Amino acid sequence: MQRWYFRSTSVMIVRIWSSWLVQETTENFDFAPKGVSKLHLDVPDNKFMEFIPKIDVIVISSGHWFAKQSVYILNNEIVGGQLWWPDQSRPMKVNNVEAFGISVETVVSAILTHPNYTGLTIVRTFSPDHYEGGAWNTGGSCTGKEKPLPPDELVENGFTNIMHKKQVSGFERAVKKATNKSKLRLLDITRIFGYRHDGHPGPYRSPDPNKMTKRGPDGRPPPQDCLHWCMPGPVDTWNELVLEIIRREFEGDRNSS
């Protein structure tokens, strides 16, 4: 999607959008009609896999798109779906949580077995959201959160916890399949950033100067984003963690050579 080149250090940073990290198509497939996203859970997305040999450090993350409507395909067979399943009399084999774990295993395995990749891969874990009083589309809010949560006030999020668990288990299964000389690290941010309900755009994601930023007379919050991150604390911390992992890995390479 974007590229930034830093001439002073000859470093290029590339951002590649891949919603599910696995192959997606909207063409009709078996009894799934055209237009609905079909995910081949056992096939990595070639939009970024084709660039693997040219990259020194890969940072990947995913998860939240598995809440969106989609059809799940394994071994060229429809095995489940999210917000889509036409035959309620027949149980699905794979739900969205299981699909996420399978996709992580697929992508990480593909990287660890790529014959021409020798770099470092960092898998960032599932990012927690902080919607209170509803979901993103049902009036959920993080309005007025100005400080991190104290340690004893963290509210456990069941969906976040199970997505994190599936991601880690998929990661661990992929590690066992490694055949190349690349390096792999898990950047686990899920629990620690559960405390940072103050780090989201909230009602300020929209640039509209007339946007609502306070609760209405009926107490309802304005439309807002309590999933993505914008405030310096979380964003800067992620950058520092990634840079520290890179520093340690590449310093280790120099010391051993």
Automatic annotation (TrEMBL):
Region (Disordered): 198-225
Superkingdom, taxonomy of origin: Eukaryota
Record's keyword terms, sorted: Signal
InterPro entries, A to Z: TBL, TBL_C
Boundaries of every Trichome birefringence-like C-terminal domain copy: 2-244
Signal sequence extent: 1-19
The family this protein is said to belong to: Belongs to the PC-esterase family. TBL subfamily.
Protein known as: Trichome birefringence-like C-terminal domain-containing protein
